[in-house]
């Protein structure tokens, strides 16, 4: 790693904290500390930043606090150098990080709702700085996708709150269960190839006890999550992106009370009578037709829609998009082409059909935005959200603790770290193209870890970044 690369890595992180999340350290400082004041060795800001660095550096295990962070004298010095930027406080001279056991004991008693408010404030800060203004749907609505994912899986019951599913039967015919944890998450998403999936709030799907008549489920969690989301963003204009599970009358009522809009993936099986009525209306509204081509990949799109279909007191708008990918040509002779002897084989790609229910009326001015920049963005929570957190170094499905409250707290620290890293990856620090500069995202994180743990960062360099002024612009290409 060259000196310039190392400085670029450190400055990218420092600028992101300085300009995008300058009060993050303060917010962590005022999270209620559950420990006995007279017996505290480490200030809570040290404890919290230790947990965040587990995910920022992608250590993949909380126990690596003992084996990687505390074994690196360079990282301990660098962490102390960043104290002013991270707003870290200490009770006594800082010589080493708290070990995993100390951190885990604290998180067992920490208030998860108080910690989650830190993540909410990070999103509010980005909105206040107008960093996400250009990503608003039709220049008006922030896109918030809500979906659930499994986080942990156990062969035996882990805690009274575990969900369970039958995976088979034993020799006596008794059911065999798998036990797991599941979380419903709301993320602010943006369109485009360099999309963001910024975590906002989450609701754990959990049983109150192991003795239950009916398990908790994603839909029940949604009814708990949405009022909390509204309380955090009472005046923000939001359009919710949901899958077909939520195409039902109670959901329409709840979103209506929040005075928000929605685009919901629609399948005829979820509302068969409504779907039949939609098909009957289609021939009547022949003027509601349009065609478009996506210039990046030349995919042809055909649209049709019907507005104001009545359903249990709600007037719903339906938008349909049929995509036909261009036919690709493959050469039989490999990459070497010979004159007059090259045969090509046309491979027809699969056509796709998308159907959405929306509270926003569709017209000839907004159909492409509602489809390509709205309904299609629901997948960002899967691809840029859950998939990245599970497969690209954050290890969402790893048990960072076996205490249920600590599991929730580690989950929030993961969301905070993922938010910071996303801003850096999209050019929010100063690195405009991670892959072009470092070869790949994987190389970037390996070098980022090395820059913090194997080299000493000069205090003058950090101070220059802290007191410098610059503007943050996210890549929207």
Index terms:
477 residues; ten-stranded mixed beta sheet; two-stranded antiparallel sheet; single chain; alpha+beta
Q: Can you give me a brief rundown of this structure?
A:
With 477 residues, the chain is an alpha+beta fold. The chain has helices spanning 3-20, 24-29, 44-56, 64-69, 73-81, 83-86, 100-109, 112-128, 218-232, 249-258, 272-281, 367-372, 380-391, 404-425, 434-438, 441-453, 459-467; strands at residues 142-154, 163-169, 175-189, 197-205, 238-242, 261-265, 289-294, 299-311, 314-324, 328-331, 344-347, 352-358.
Could you describe the 3D structure shown?
Strand 8 (299-311) and strand 9 (314-324) form a beta hairpin. It is globular and about 75 Å long. The chain has 477 residues and is an alpha+beta fold. Among the domains are: 3-114 and 405-467, no CATH class; 266-327 and 348-368, no CATH class. The mean pLDDT is 88. 39% of the residues lie in helices and 21% in strands. It starts with a helix and ends in a 10-residue tail after the last helix. The strands form 2 sheets. Strands 1, 2, 3, 4, 5, 6, 7, 8, 9 and 12 form a 10-stranded mixed sheet that branches.
Structural class: alpha+beta
Distance from first to last alpha carbon: 28 Å
**Biggest pleated-sheet summary:** 10 strands, mixed
- Helix content estimate: 25-40%
Sheet-strand content, in percent, reads 15-25%
Mean pLDDT across all amino acids: 88
E-strand count: 12
Task: Based on Cα principal axes, name the global outline.
Answer: globular
Q: Would you identify the regions where 5 or more consecutive residues have pLDDT less than 50?
A: none
Number of helices: 17
What is the rounded Rg? 25 Å
Order of helices and strands: HHHHHHHHEEEEHEHEHEEEEEEHHHHHH
